[in-house]
Design goal:
By secondary structure, this protein is an alpha+beta fold. 28% of the residues lie in helices and 45% in strands. It has two helices and eight strands.
Length: 130
């Protein structure tokens, strides 16, 4: 390849790179919109019961991301998607390193009404309370 041809190829590659940065594919924009809708659908307060004790978890959207926390805990934990279509997520609590897999369930009407937590062999099912 001649020097001039290599410059043309380099220029074309740089143009494509710049275009992809300034004009992201529509699918990316659509995926973000879909994620935001799902985050809004699952956001709410869920109550779990374990050995007679009640645990309240609050899921909410902040800065376009899904977060969760225990009702009286000040630590916001980012909830990251594993499979948005199946409403499957994961989270790691920074203060103690605990890892959770989180799943949400829709009722017949399409409203998210249940949450399932899995961590270190413990499985908990919670019901949406608001």
């Amino acid at each position: 390849m001649t020097r001039q041809n290599s410059r043309i190829v380099l220029a074309a590659a740089l143009f494509l790179l710049a275009a992809s940065l300034f004009f992201p594919p529509l699918s990316t924009a659509q995926e973000k919109a879909d994620a935001q809708k799902i985050y809004a659908d699952v956001a709410g307060t869920y109550e779990f019961t374990l050995e007679g004790q009640s645990l309240i978890l609050i899921f909410f959207v902040k800065d376009g991301r899904l977060y969760g926390k225990e009702q009286m805990d000040p630590e916001d934990v980012e909830i990251k998607p594993l499979d948005l279509e199946k409403l499957k997520f994961e989270a790691t609590v920074q203060s103690n390193g605990n890892y959770y897999e989180i799943g949400f369930v829709r009722d017949e009407g399409g409203k998210v009404n249940k949450c399932h937590l899995s961590s270190a062999g413990t499985e908990l099912d919670g019901a949406r309370v608001n």
